[in-house]
Design brief:
The chain is α+β, with helices and mostly antiparallel strands. It is built from 3 helices and 7 strands. The N and C termini lie far apart (about 40 Å).
């Protein structure tokens, strides 16, 4: 199954792209996506543990299952003032 993950903010900067496609075996969970993303883009590893993930515009924990047609987003923490 091919899962497309949209990257935002510092995750996008570190990966050098707006979106990453991952090929994963079913069933696919957010946790599997997080792990595969770190393997695919080593530069993301320092921030992945603190990133939130959203599936179809709803925050999702690592146990949430994802379908190929779902929209997945990786949202790093934001700071500033």
């Amino acid at each position: 199954m091919i899962i497309r993950v949209k990257l935002f903010a510092v995750a996008q900067d570190l990966a050098g792209c707006e979106e990453v496609s991952l090929e994963l075996k079913e069933p696919v969970t957010v946790g599997a996506i997080r792990q595969s993303l770190g393997q695919r883009c080593a530069a993301l590893q320092p921030v992945l543990a603190s990133c939130a993930f959203a599936v179809n515009n709803e925050y999702a924990d690592n146990s949430v299952e994802v379908q190929e047609t779902d929209e997945v987003a990786c949202l790093p923490p934001v700071s500033g003032g």
